[in-house]
Amino acid sequence: MLIALIAVLTVAVAAAVVLPLMRRAPAAAERGAFDRAVYRDQLKELERDAALELLDEPEANAARLEIERRLLAADAPVDAAPPRDEGMSPRLALAVALLLPMTAVVLYLALGAPDVPDQPYAARAPERALASASGPVALDKEVAGLTEKLKANSESDADWLRLAQVQAALGHWQKSAEAYREALRITKGRPDVASAYGEMLVMAADGIVTPGARDAFTAALGRDPKNLAARYYLGLSESQQGNAQAAVDAWQRLAADLPETSELRGELKARIAEAARAGGLQAPPLAEPAPGPTATDMAQAGKMTAEDRQKMIAGMVEGLAAKLKDRPDDLDGWLRLGRAYGVLGERDKAADAYEHAASLKPDDAAILVAEGEALLPDHRPQTAVPERVVTLMKRAETLDPKQPAALWYLGLAAAQQRRFDEATGYWQRLSTALPADSDQHKAVMAALEAIKGK
After folding, report:
1. Is the sign of the CA dihedral 231, 236, 239, 241 positive or negative?
2. How far apart are CA 236 and CA 239, in angstroms?
3. Of the chain's two ends, which shows fewer C-beta atoms within 10 Å, N or C?
4. Closest C-alpha to 81, from 129, 40, 33, 19
5. Cβ(272)–Cβ(286) under 8 Å?
6. What is the pLDDT of residues 55-92, one digit of tens each?
7. Cut 0.70: pTM above it
8. Domains (range + CATH), the chain
9. What single DSSP character describes residue 75?
10. Any idea which of 11-25, 110-124, 177-191, 339-353 has the lowest mean pLDDT?
11. What percent of the chain is predicted at pLDDT more than 90?
């Protein structure tokens, strides 16, 4: 099927090239028509970016005036080029018909990369806005000015970020990545900068998520678990490594966190279908956004009494629970449900939601800890640690021997049952895993001192 489709497309392309050679050339199209189409597209894109508040009002107005000026200039009448007087060229047409497909095959075998996916253009809105608002000459001048400024003050994160965006608008991916790396150093790993740096590394590598890019996205996600770009590209990394199911799962979780109107949902749907097909899987329907408060809901909530507000929140949580019955594999959804029930004080329901999440990801100690903490009426040291919580914490410790919360509660349970040597062992291990100047470390040392000699 694919080969037949390629053959049909090859014939169509060859015909498009050969047929003009078999007849006299018409008058050349007016260049202004092309220019006007480009400028109208730029205006539409500018209005979209302005509506999304990617540009402030002065920048949007300046860009709009410049594009409209160019559009007016393109409207000036231009004489059409006279018709060319070349005659028919059957020999040339035959040569092109034969050589075109052969040349295409040779070039594709030498340079092609069928496994490299397209780039998520929507993820680079700042660079798109910059490119549409300014021409290459203006951007080159800005690069020169920023470079001079940075020679005088190389610790300006704002200038490095601006330089990175301008270089990206020019398509200088590696130079943009270098500027983002400097900004990342100065901002001490700010997650949005880390994800932008990773994306430029991907662009510079022709769409491949390199180990360096993956490290950048992982670091961004560690500090901002909701970072869209990091989550997208880590899913892409799984896909490129042949982990189709992991890629589909990552993109489904991302889709569940996106509003219905997000342009990225269409991109995710195509990616999921592509990864599923490559992995021999059945492509699932794109995850729907989890129910949550709309702007109208929030406005109404501000006028409600505390009791009515609580009822509204409870209704939303129940709506999420009902929806998850049809989405048993939605890990993020079950974690959200556990947190929501915890906020409402419904400990058993929170624990059940976390238990379901743990069944989806049994090697995640943090989920077991969350389930255990959901069962505690409060977190005071004098509150008895239930046996179910002890069991969960032991499971978490087995998965992660340095899990701080597990070590704390296991030590606390042992101390409450006067097994002081066991408690000392847990808390000494915990103290070595905590920064020496942190409040948590001080609390653990105080607890060790309290049971000393008992």
Report:
1. negative
2. 5
3. N
4. 33
5. yes
6. 566 666 666 666 665 656 555 444 444 444 444 455 55
7. no
8. 2-76+87-102 (no CATH), 133-278 (1.25.40.10), 290-296+303-361 (1.25.40.10), 363-454 (1.25.40.10)
9. T
10. 110-124
11. 33
d(CA 211, CA 188): 20
What tokens does 269 get? Answer: 């749907």
273 closest CA partner among 286, 259, 254: 286
Tokens for 215? Answer: 């490290």
Would you state the structure tokens that stand for residue 268, as one six-digit string? 């995710």
DSSP assignment of 176-195, as one string? HHHHHHHHHHHTTS-HHHHH
The position carrying tokens 């997650």 is 191
419: DSSP letter: -
* CA gap 392, 284 in Å, rounded: 32
Residue-wise pLDDT for 379-423, tens only, equals: 677 778 999 999 999 999 999 998 988 998 999 999 999 999 999
Q: Could you tell me the CA-to-CA distances from 136 to 166, 171, 412 in Å, in that order?
A: 10, 10, 64
Residue with tokens 């490290």: 215
- Work out the number of other CB atoms within 10 angstroms of the CB of residue 283: 14
What is the signed CA dihedral for 15, 19, 25, 28, rounded to 10 degrees?
-20
Give the C-alpha distances (Å, rounded to integers) separating 115 from 25, 206, 293, 350: 39, 11, 40, 42
Mean pLDDT of 9-14: 55
**How does DSSP assign 113-176, residue by residue?**
-TTPPPP-GGGGHHHHHHHHHS-HHHHHHHHHHHHHHHHH-TT-HHHHHHHHHHHHHTT-HHHH
The span from the first CA to the last CA of the chain, in angstroms, equals: 78
Greatest extent of the chain over all pairs of C-alpha atoms, in Å: 107
Task: Tell the residue number behind the tokens 């989806």, with chain if given.
Answer: 360
User: How many helices and strands (H and E) does the chain possess?
Assistant: 22, 0
